[in-house]
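Figure S7 source data.
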Amino acid sequence: MPVPTTIRLASPLTPDSIVDGDGLRTVVWTQGCLLRCPGCHNPRTHDLHGGFEVPLALLKIELRQFKLQRGITFSGGEPFLQVEACAELARYVKSRNWDVWSYSGFTYEQLSADEKFLPLLREVDVLVDGPFILAERDLTLPFRGSRNQRILKLSELRK
Ligand code: SF4
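Tokens for the predicted iron/sulfur cluster complex:
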């Protein structure tokens, strides 16, 4: 599949986050999610046509300006709905020795069973997977909102 030249975001990049994965990270807020989890913390990211479109080339320039970042985190929204654009950004930051975390409302099993998700899944070092389930909400959990969600260290598992 050809690499897209743009990505649809819900918000501008957020550098220097310490709550979206290990270390200092830049968050990419992807726009669009079809899961509609009750109690979703970010419902304005659901509309597939909401947010704004931005050239990947511009984001790469912006990313180069952020210093001391350990990595990038895809959040949203559902990053895997823009799999090729996110994979392109993931490859770019990895070429600069950043690591890649991604949230997804899909489970690892769902993502790994569907070829269309693999270009991004292959680049992700740590996946926080599964939908937000209100009945399992737990504010004490690091980096996730409900107990069903898992922090999967994929790059370690691949070794
Ligand atoms: S997967 Fe995430 S963004 Fe999508 S509805 Fe669920 S909590 Fe919201």
